[in-house]
Amino acid sequence: MQQARSRRAFGTSAAAGQQSSNDSGAAGKKAGTPDTPQPAGTTKRSLTFAIGGILALLGVTSYTLLRQPSGVPVEVATQSKPTPSSTQTALESVATKRSDALKKLDSLTNKERREEAKRLGLLTAEEVDAVLHAKENSWFIEPVAGGSRLRVDTNQVSSNDPLEDYLAWTTLSSNATNRHMFSVFDGHAGYLCAEQLAARMGPMLDKSLEVIAQLAELKKGIKKPEFEAGDKALVKTIRQIEREAGLNWDHVPLALTATFINMDYELVTGALAEFRKQQQLMRMDELLGPAVSGSCGLVAVVDTEAKEVVVANTGDSRALLGVRLKNGTWKAVRLSQDQTADNANELARMAREHPREDSVIHRGRVLGGLMPTRAFGDCRYKWPLEAQQDLFPILYSRGHRYATTPPNYVTPPYVTARPVIVKHMLSDDDKFIVIASDGLYDQLSDAEVIGSVSQWYEAHQMSASTLTTEDDNAATHLIRAALSTDQSGRRSDTYIRRLLAIPPPHSRRFRDDISVTIVTLNAE
Ligand SMILES: *[C@@H]1O[C@H](CO)[C@@H](O)[C@H](O)[C@H]1NC(C)=O
Ligand SMILES: *[C@@H]1O[C@H](CO)[C@@H](O)[C@H](O)[C@H]1NC(C)=O
Predict the structure, then answer these.
(1) Distance in Å, CA 175 to ligand 1 centroid
(2) Ligand 2: which of 324, 326, 327 to mutate, most ligand atoms within 8 Å of CB?
(3) Residues in contact with 140: Cβ distance below 8 Å, sequence separation at least 6, in sequence order
(4) Domain named PPM-type phosphatase: which ranges (predicted)?
(5) Residue nearest (by alpha carbon) to ligand 1 atom 4
(6) What is the three-class DSSP state of 395?
(7) CB neighbour list of residue 249: distance below 8 Å, 6 or more residues apart
(8) Pocket of ligand 2 contains residue 329 by CB under 6 Å
(9) Averaged over 33-43, what is the pLDDT?
(10) Whether the predicted pLDDT of 272 surpasses 50
C-alpha cells in the first residue's frame, strides 16, 4: 500500500481553512483544542502579514511535508481498493446532499444549526453503506515459526475535513518477525503532527529496539556498538530512561518510551533548533507546522511468539481487550489509561509539576485549552515563552491559527509526550484487541464496544457459528454500531442516516473522526 497522503502539500490559505474546521467543533462533545485562540502581539502581526504576503507573491505557497522515513516500510491507512462505480455514485450523491446542507447551515446561528441539523434530509441506506465501506480494509498476518495467525480489520469515518486521524501498522524487523505494531494517531489543530507520527513511528521504534539490543550486548561485554551520527539523540534518550527506570526494564516498553520521547523532541525542539539554524522562512511551515499542530498517539506492539501485548499511550485514544470467559460471557479489559483531566493520576502529576499554579487545569483542560494532558506536538504548551514570542506572530500570519501563547503561561513545558505503558500477557481467553481514537468512545462505552465486536467474533471466528453480521469487516461493524447509537443508548438506522448527512465542519458538533483497528488473535 502506498502512503497516499504522505506527500500532500499545502499553502498558507489551505492551512487556515483546514484549521478552521477544528475550532468549530466541540459543543458538548470533546475536542482537543481551544475554542478561540487569540493572536499574541497584534502590532508585530501586521509586519509579519507583509512578509507572508510577499512570500505568497513569490509563489512560495506549497511545501512537501514529509521527511522521508528510513528503515522498515510503514503502512499508513488510506483508501486502498478501487471503489466500485455504484459506491462511487452513492458517495457523489452524499457529497451533493452535504453541500446543499452546508449552504443551509452556514447561514444560521449556532443555536439554529443544532435544530436545523435534526431536520436535514436523511441519507439512504446505500449512501450510509458507501460512507462506511469507503476506507475499510482487512487482512491476515501469517505466523513465522512459533507465532500465531492474526486478522486485522481497519476502518475510518471522518468528521473533520480533512480527516485528522491516522492509522499505521508494520511488522517490526528486529528480533524475528512475530512482533507487530498497530497504532492510531488522533490529530488536533490540523493533521500535520499526526501525519508525521504515522510515517515515522514504525522506523524509529525499530531503531530503538536495535539500539537497545546493542546496548544489552555492550553490557554483557560482547560487542562495542557503533551508532550512526543520526541516532545519537535516540541513544542518549534510551540511556537516560534506563538510568531513571532501572537497567532491567523490558526491551519493548523501554523502546516505546524512548521512541515517544525522542519523536516529540524531534518534532518540537529539534525542528525549532533546525529552523533557527537555517533561518529560512521558506522552510518554516514544513519544519514548524507539525510542532504547532498536535496529536495523541497510541501504539500497541503484539508479539505472537512471546504472547504479550505492550501498549504505549499518550493522550485519549484507547486500547481494549476482548476476553471471552469459559462460560461464554465477554469482558472488556482496558489496555491503556486515558490521559485527561478526568484521570486523577494526571491531575496529581500536573499539580506536582506546576506547584502554585491554580489554573494549570482550567475548565477541565490544560491551561483552559488542551483536552489531553499528554500529547505530541502542541508547541504552544511546550516552547519557551521567548521562542513563542519570536515565532508565533509569523506562524499565525501564515495560517497556523494555533500559534498563540495560552493564558498563564509560566512554567513550560505543560504537556509531555511520555507514554504510560501497559503490558499484558495474552491467554487463550483473550480474543481480540480494539484500538481506536476517542471518537469511538464518545459514542460507546467499553462494554458496548466489546459487546459489538463479540457479535462479529462469534459470527466470523467460531467455526460452528450460524450467526451472520451485516458487515464482514469487524471495524465497520463496530463503527456502524457507534454511529447508530444515540445519546440515550438507543440504536436505530435512522440515527446513522441523519448523523452522516451533516456536513463538515458542522458535523464536528455531533461526532468526531472515528478510526478503528481490530486485531483478532489466533484468527481462523
Ligand atoms: C527475542 O525474542 C525472544 C522470544 O520472544 C526473546 O526470548 C529474546 O529475549 C528476544 N531478544 C531480544 C534481543 O529482544
Ligand atoms: C461467567 O463467569 C463470570 C466469571 O467467572 C461470572 O462473573 C459471570 O456471572 C458468569 N456469567 C454467567 C452467565 O454465568
Answers:
(1) 6
(2) 327
(3) 149, 150, 151, 152, 523
(4) 149-521
(5) 306
(6) helix
(7) 241, 242
(8) yes
(9) 32
(10) yes
> Which ligand lies nearest to the CA atom of residue 217 in the structure?
1
Tell me the CA–centroid distance for residue 446 and ligand 2, in Å.
Answer: 18
What is the pLDDT at residue 143? 86
- In the chain, count H helices and then E strands: 16, 17
Nearest-CA residue for ligand 1 atom 7 is 306
Nearest CA to ligand 1 atom 11: 175
Which ligand 2 atom lies nearest to the CA of residue 331?
3
Is the Cβ atom of 326 under 6 angstroms away from ligand 2? no
pLDDT exceeds cutoff 70 at 255? yes
Q: Say if residue 8's pLDDT is above 70.
A: no
Mark 86-97 as b/e (b = at least 16 C-beta within 10 Å). ebeebbeebeeb
Ligand nearest to the CA of 253: 1
Closest CA to 73 of 141, 146, 171, 197: 171
Ligand nearest to the CA of 308: 1
Decide which of 22 and 85 is more confident: 85
Report whether 447 contacts 194 (CB < 8 A): no
Instruction: Determine the pLDDT at residue 218.
Output: 85
Residue with CA nearest ligand 2 atom 9? 329
Q: Which residues line ligand 1 (CB under 6 A)?
A: 175, 213, 251, 305-306
Smallest CA-to-CA distance from 171 within 11, 277, 292, 303 is with 303
Question: Candidates 148, 175, 205, 220: which one to mutate for ligand 1, based on the most atoms within 8 Å of Cβ?
Answer: 175
Residue 100 confidence class, pLDDT cut points 50, 70, 90: very high
The structural domains of the chain, ordered by start, are: 43-520 (3.60.40.10)
Chain-wide mean pLDDT for the chain? Answer: 84
**In this predicted model, which residue has the larger pLDDT, 142 or 197?**
197
Q: In this structure, what are the phi and psi dihedrals at residue 205, rounded to the nearest 5 degrees? A: -65, -40
Nearest in space to 318 (alpha carbons), one of 295, 345, 299: 299
* Residue 327 Cβ < 6 Å to ligand 2: yes
The candidate with the shortest Cα–Cα distance to 433, out of 327, 305, 334, 292, is 334
CA dist., res. 457 & res. 499, Å (int): 27
pLDDT band at 37 (very low <50, low <70, confident <90, very high): very low
C-alpha grid cell for residue 439?
A: 471518537
Give the model's confidence band at 175: pLDDT under 50 very low, under 70 low, under 90 confident, else very high: low
> Who wins on pLDDT, 29 or 257?
257
